[in-house]
User: Which sequence fits this backbone?
């Protein structure tokens, strides 16, 4: 556990019933004249942009909608939206979408006045400073991007996803309104929900865990473990969906104070090379990595059992095993694949996966149990 730690969070967070009604007040408070709205065509096609835009229209603010963003974008694809934002002269950014939308909006917020771009931030992420305020409205309960200083982009030349981390990207405003995830397709709700689960349990068992991150990580775990299945299965389970949305935000705060570990590190090559959805990659690796880590974090996993599951196991070993079994149960219930064979990943790619995964030292150093190339190889073999 860290001896020194800090906590950085969004300036203002609005949640609960009709939380979207705060949009007008936020725009008025910041005297916004030219608003850039980051989203994607899937969000627009699903009608999810309509409710936030109705509030924007009430304010009378001049608005440009930027939606030409694919899922899991490369840094060049994200740069296109950043350039469009710079060209439109926006003085405020609102993001309505999942992790990729919010990450791109955050990158724009620190690149509006600079001649360099996202590519330059891959090597020197701390060079940029915030030059425009942001409002994040997540449409999934999973990525936690609305709370974090991170932006994840694919780097094709490395066949890897890379995290750009800069605290200047932390959102100024966040709105968590469960109406935005009410009609989320089960497949997406499941993948993003397990992503939040991975965030919470990785931060709880991270080398960088500390009293600040622990508060949010364990609360997120309690809320997710006891709500994720209902939130995904029942479109009308609004309380469970609200719990998941708040839990995702809490898990994002835990990332900011602590950090994810080998689950995320080893999943980045799966997204970068095979374009497997981020949440699915994490779901595939979640139980295998936690089983590998178990000897080093048994007491921490036992504490999760005591807080979140409250069953009849008496020993730390039994409690720890029960938590890992619960992770597997959730992934199975949500019909998320547990093998890379379903994505056509050949066994012959094993060494390339190991090499790419071991490059993600930013996250591997957080893992309580050191991960060697042989360890990574065994973990990947388990899911091939």
Assistant:
């Amino acid at each position: 556990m860290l001896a020194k730690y800090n906590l950085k969070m969004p300036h203002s967070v609005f949640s609960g019933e009709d939380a979207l009604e705060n949009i007008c007040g936020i725009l008025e408070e910041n005297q916004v004249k030219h608003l850039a709205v980051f989203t994607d065509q899937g969000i627009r096609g699903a009608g999810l942009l309509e409710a936030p835009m109705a509030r924007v229209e009430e304010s009378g603010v001049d608005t440009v909608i930027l939606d030409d963003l694919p899922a899991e974008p490369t840094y060049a694809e994200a740069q296109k939206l950043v350039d469009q934002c710079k060209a439109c002269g926006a003085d405020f950014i609102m993001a309505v979408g999942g992790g990729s939308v919010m990450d791109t909006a955050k990158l724009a917020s620190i690149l509006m006045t600079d001649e360099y771009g996202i590519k330059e931030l891959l090597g020197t992420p701390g060079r940029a400073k915030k030059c425009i305020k942001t409002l994040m409205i997540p449409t999934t309960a999973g990525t936690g991007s609305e709370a974090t200083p991170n932006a994840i982009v694919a780097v094709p030349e490395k066949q890897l996803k890379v995290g750009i981390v800069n605290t200047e990207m932390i959102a100024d405003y966040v709105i968590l309104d469960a109406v935005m995830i009410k009609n989320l397709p089960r497949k997406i709700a499941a993948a993003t929900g397990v992503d939040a689960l991975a965030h919470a349990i990785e931060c709880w068992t991270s080398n960088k865990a500390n009293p600040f991150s622990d508060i949010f990580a364990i609360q997120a775990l309690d809320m997710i473990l006891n709500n994720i299945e209902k939130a995904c299965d029942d479109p009308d389970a609004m309380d469970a969906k609200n719990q998941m949305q708040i839990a995702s935000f809490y898990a994002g705060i835990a990332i900011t104070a602590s950090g994810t570990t080998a689950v995320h590190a080893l999943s980045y090559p799966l997204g970068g090379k095979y374009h497997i959805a981020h949440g699915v990659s994490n779901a595939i690796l979640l139980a295998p990595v936690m089983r590998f880590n178990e000897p080093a974090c048994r007491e921490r996993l036992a504490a999760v059992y005591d807080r979140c599951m409250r069953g009849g196991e008496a020993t730390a070993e039994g409690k720890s095993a029960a938590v890992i079994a619960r992770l597997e149960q959730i992934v199975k219930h949500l019909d998320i694949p547990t093998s890379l064979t379903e994505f056509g990943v050949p066994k012959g790619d094993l060494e390339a996966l190991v090499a790419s995964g071991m490059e993600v030292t930013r996250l591997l150093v957080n893992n309580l149990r050191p991960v060697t190339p042989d360890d990574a190889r065994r973990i990947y073999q388990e899911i091939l």
About this structure: The domain at 186-383 is CATH 1.20.1090.10 (Dehydroquinate synthase-like, alpha domain). Residues 203 and 255 are 6 Å apart (CA to CA). Strands lie at 12-15, 34-38, 62-66, 92-97, 134-138, 150-155, 160-165, 173-176.
